[in-house]
Predict the 3D structure of the following.
Amino acid sequence: MSIKSGYFKKHLSVDLTKGSAEYRELSDAFLEKYIGGRGFGAKLVWDNLRKHNFKIDPLGENNLVVIAPGPLTGVYLPSSGKNSFVAISPATGLYGDSSIGGGFGVELRQSGIDILSITGKAPELSVLVIDNHETEIIPMPELKGKTSLEAEGIIREKLDIQTAHIATIGPAGENLVKYACVNADWGRNAGRTGFGAIMGSKNLKAIIVRGHEDLPVHDINGLMAEANKAFGYLREHKYFQQWQQQGLMNVIEYANEKGILPTYNFRDSVFARYDQINGETMLSDFKIGDSACFACSMCCGNICLVKSGKYAGTVVEGPEYESCAMLGSNVGVDDFAAVLSANQLCDELGLDTISAGNLIGAVIEGYEKGIISLADLDGRDITWGDDDAILKLIRLIAYREGIGDIIADGARRIVEKWPEMDKLILEVKGLEQSAYDSRAGSSMALAYATSDIGAHHTRAWTIAREMEEGQGWTDDERVKTVIYHQTLRPLFDMLGVCRLPWIELGLNERHYENFYRYVTGNELTLEQLLALSSDVYDLTRLINVKLGVSRKDDSLPYKVHSSPPLTGPNAGKVVDKDAFQNLLSLYYRERGWDEDGLPPDDTEKKFEE
Amino acid sequence: MSKKLTVIPEQCSDCRICELVCAIKHFGVNNPKKAAIRVINAYPHPVLRMPVVCGQCKVPACAQVCPTDALRRVDGIVRLDEEACISCFKCIEACPFGAIYAHEDCDLPIKCDMCGGEPECVKYCPLGALRLIPEHALGETKRLNNILSYTQMREIEFYEKGEKKTIRYAEIGKEEL
């Protein structure tokens, strides 16, 4: 089978140690099997691991970071602005990926490549410029210590490329904070699993891309007709306008009502003053504009401005649900202006808002319980809703000062230092849990436990379905739903599109089979595409297994099993240990993995070529 | 009736669907860099997303500098005579809005032709940031918003069928100006 269109069939391989950049051809077999985005990344990271005998320091020169859009990125269809970052994660030491929206990935594709991979380490702080087919590594030591947004501004001015798309890291990335993020387009982030730290370890402050190539499309008229059907469906949806107005901020209301909103470090799952930090509050007092990723009519991004009070002048693209919950209710903050300020600070310093909010919540509870002392906090106490102390702690983390130096190394380092914190921190495989309480539903717990990057909802988000189905849902249905999510959602990351039109507004996934066919000319059914995505899930599992993962690591945080939420509709609920182990066994069987969670012996052969 | 393609930047989300549909319509390719409309961003101070597109000026600066008279305003649209154009791109430099574009693959300047009266960008903009407005109605919304933001206003609250409402009014003669 030859791939007719949809790809440039080019991989730009950059080695910062050698200062080299070379274009490599991509074979049709590779393109068809791995599709794009996360699929490309997983394969290249796997090859790199094999090359180095499975010994890669996530913050060492040999960690290869793959930045890959997909064949649908930048194409005329709903929400096609997605791009994946893939590498071995410093947060978990395992497979890691994170996707970023906005227009960065579109620009990267327009420079005529399908994959950008970066290895090595630049001798001094540098930026990588890809201007269509010209690539240059430029030392810019003057960017040292600059925040993400400052750096973006300076680069635009100094290199005189106003229209480029720029991905930067902040001080947190330079200081190798394990959950430092990459920020692009003034406020979109590849947030999770520490890509900021990886760039920091490579002395790479920014990636600047500009391109103007036509994106290859096999049948533009067919695509246009199909896309217009999809756009039309979204436009007519009863929640479409609400989406445009609130974006993901509408989830605060929902999560609180259902009792899954992380509150006081997951001590509670409802927040009494949730209405101070919800979408309505944002709309009435803070929102000044919409922000969309490329080709997205849903525009879930909000631009907010604080107009008065001590945070006046704070302007941020956000918050979205996760940031607002983790930097709001989870740390007891009921002042929306303070949430915005914390979000802006995290963006500026280049920190993942989820991990930061999760760990700050844990630190506050640890201090409350006497595990962490006042001396540990350098004499400045911290309590729920203490926005000054929370903002200060964010800075300490990014600059690795005082207690921040320990928190910067993530959940596992905190537990190493204060073993009793093990009962307070919610993480899986070393990645701090995101903002959906899983005690209300064991399928969500299973989703976190078996996610290949750790406790993040990106692979499967089954909580809403579980809430609808309630007690009547069988374990078999739970497992099948989690696996379907873990297959379809990563497929979106491989194609280079956003999953929200499907998960939030119910856009039929069959559209994507047609989009793929119109763009590539390749006739694959949705089922065939899903099978390819499932193979990539086996591959990321294989990577993790080779790095030491087995059943013992598909485990849940202490609180999920043993410490129920105190209030709300799910008060008293935990996930039963034995029931969860049964669920996990069922999950392994359904995947064709053995009782210890290992894929069959011949799995490795599938990914040799 | 002469209609003008009008940009309402406050409504723009930077999704760039306008760029895509423009390029697909005129060149048949998926390439926002071949569009005659582009969304330009400023952030964070000020925060602004501004689709930049030809306003079909009545006294077009582009036409004034064109050495071969290739740009002329006909029926309200500044049209490019492709035969006469020598691709000197003086028009791009002359346009005070930067609303004419160029691309390496294209010999001619890329300029909005209003799609013959029904612009694709207006049709597909998901937020109504691009509109076709009759010339006599230009500025209407701004005028209304401006009077509504008049600072010397009083506000009273009242209940109608149990629902709290407010009414704003200008109190005559009570305000020190």
Remarks:
- The longest strand of chain B covers residues 153-160.
- Chain B touches chain A at residues 10-17, 20-21, 24, 28-34, 41, 43-45, 47, 49, 103-105, 124, 126-127 (CB under 8 Å).
- Chain B has one domain: 3-138.
- The domain at 3-138 of chain B is CATH 3.30.70.20 (Alpha-Beta Plaits).
